[in-house]
């Protein structure tokens, strides 16, 4: 079984990156898309806080956010901003898949629900569904 | 592990000769985890059957439903591939539930929407007690099917 602390820290790291990335993406969006990005940004902050609380209860020190993150590609317009949002969500989904592997049933269910939320945000930003969200693409 | 040797092998054969047939006649045991996996295979087959019926009945829905059905077929293939215990276990292929299809396109979409919601809930219930890798597969399939719920819901809302 995976250690809960390591998997929780990985999920928290992904949430930190998402919070940062939505700040970048949101600046390139307007109207309904910007409102959607703001709602997703808020959801990631809520998830970040929940993960920090879980780690603290386990006696661990939650990993801190980096001051800045390297973006996977240049964000120059609304299209690339939407692609960034989808990419961030895919990273979050992968991180929560790792948390599903822990034996604690509460953490498993939490992670699985988080995967559903992020997979739906991928759908919202990319317009497409995936057969195996979070899994390596070869599967 | 014991290695076969000229001295141990005859003894092993002698012991086997006494109890071999009785041991071989014991039915293969299926662990609760495998039983759950087999149920997941059947559930996926049943869901695909509804998609097949909906597409065959309402061809206008095919462009929207075929991609979702293809993902279910991928789910089924992955689930079937995980059935490795006991060796030689027959993996179910039969559809066990054939509900009457909705009498209109809208009703069929609503039916699929409900079926996908139920599938997500059922998969969530399969997480507890599953091995880490099986839990990850169930969670990933549940996430995929949660997006199907959204796609179908949007389609229903747009009608």
How would you summarize what this structure contains?
The complex is a heterodimer of chains A (139) and B (159). Chain A is mostly helical and 139 residues long.
- How far apart the termini of chain B lie comes to 66 Å
Architecture of chain B, according to CATH?
A: Up-down Bundle
Number of strands of chain A: 0
Total strand count of chain B, please?
0
Looking at how many chains there are and whether they match, the oligomeric state comes to heterodimer
Provide the CATH topology of chain B.
Ferritin
> SSE order of chain A in H/E notation?
HHHH
CATH class category label of chain B: Mainly Alpha
Name given to the CATH architecture of chain A: Up-down Bundle
| Largest sheet: number of strands, sense, barrel closure of chain B | none
Strand content range of chain B = under 5%
Radius of gyration of chain A, in Å, reads 15 Å
**CATH superfamily (homologous) name of chain B:** Ferritin, core subunit, four-helix bundle
Helix content of chain A: 55-70%
Number of DSSP helical runs of chain A:
4
DSSP helix fraction of chain B = over 70%
> Which whole number gives the mean pLDDT of chain A?
96
The largest interface is:
A-B, 29 and 28 residues
The span between the termini of chain A is 21 Å
